[in-house]
Amino acid sequence: PVAAASIGQVYKAVLRADASPTGERMTVAVKCQRPNILETVTLDLLTIRGVVDFFCTVPGEGNKKLRQDAQGLLAVLDLAATRFLEELDYLQEAANGARFEREMNAVPVMRDVVKVPSVLLDYSSRYVITQEWVEGVKLTDLEGDPKYANEEGAALRADVVRKLLNAYMVQFLETGFLHADPHPGNFLIQPDGRLCIMDYGMMTEILPDQRLAFVEYMAHLTAGQYSKTLDDLVTLGFVSEELAKDPAKREVVGPVLAQTLSALYAEGGGLDKKVEILDQQAQSRIGEIGDKLEELSKEYPITLPPYFILILRAFGTLEGLGLSTNSDFAILEECFPYIARRLLSDDSPRMRSALRTFIYGGGDRLNVAKVEDLTRGFGSFTNAMEAERKVAVTGEGSLAVRSSATPSGQLDAATKELLELMFAPEGNYVQELIIEEAVRAVDSLSRDALVQVWQRLPGAPPGAL
């Protein structure tokens, strides 16, 4: 075999011309499942579930917390077990791969950036899956190869992580079909620079309403509007609605949530640095409020919805990859370019509200710094994806860092798209905001001019306007 894992092995083979969908000899990857793996895994899962189920029913008031934790773990285990058993069904994986390829190709900014190898359904079964063979360098090899152990190699790895994160943001918040097993061995960097994503046994689906709620949450978190993030967490199923409706309880939860979220996501660095920040907070007034929150959590526990487990696993792995290239890697900061693009290009009512909240901060004064952040993030994502697309289309790629610089005298892709948004004949919310600010500016200038004229008139009483 050319590769092996816990449940299967991969072989390289060649289809005869008369058996190939292309009519020519075709190199393929054939993954075969190990014998009796289903029975072994099922027995292990049943045993673990029996133990957890026992703790769910331990009697006594003093064991209430133990029962709550066990019930939460049981929900997680049931989800993980279902997905793991699905991973053993190669027909399901083949269907996942075909759907994943179709949906990623349907997103213009991803079409020429991400490669999903085609599945050959006619040569796949419950225990065997056949896909087109793809050449490239595995991310694991990129990390361990001495020839990439220099500044250029570090920049290349950082570029790959950025590309990965952008691809996952599109899956998470746009297509809603997320590859939930992002360990380095599942990624290839092709000679033309495209990112190849493999292994579709573990996928998860994010519903449209959840996708919108996550965009709102990240927009509010990035803008520092932590009170709104509490409402977002209620919508997403993390926090009890009853807790969020009580003003006194919000006063307890709000400050702690703000500081904790900032430390975990807005700050860069690994676990040790985040723990250090949280320890410092524990010594402050936030720490005193945190004691109240601990008491409150006994009545209203913050839960992790089962659907979020695989999402958390995926982005936790991506953050680990990011930290391997940059010790100050901040996941929220790296995700923001996609959020900025989504806020400006999605004209749905909820995205309109999130955009307004982000740039006005809940008031009526435009925050120029936030507008700059938004346009900079939009430009970063759009230009980076366009640079990747051009390289793939022209076939002039190589395993090197892409430059998103635009030749002198030409508009870059982000500027073109922003201009299209501003002058779109069908109209959109960005145009409405520009008009609103223009009217406000004209009104202010007109008033200032009128005041100056009035003050120059003989006998005009001061402060009459």
From TrEMBL:
UniProt record similarity statement: Belongs to the protein kinase superfamily. ADCK protein kinase family.
SUPFAM superfamilies xref list: Protein kinase-like (PK-like)
Annotated organism of origin: Pyramimonas obovata
Name of this chain's protein: Protein kinase domain-containing protein
Superkingdom of this protein's organism: Eukaryota
Domain Protein kinase: 1-366
InterPro entries to which the protein is assigned, alphabetical: ABC1_dom, Kinase-like_dom_sf, Prot_kinase_dom, UbiB_kinase
A Pfam family matched in the record: ABC1
GO function terms (MF aspect): ATP binding; protein kinase activity
PANTHER family named in the record: CHAPERONE-ACTIVITY OF BC1 COMPLEX CABC1 -RELATED, PROTEIN KINASE DOMAIN-CONTAINING PROTEIN
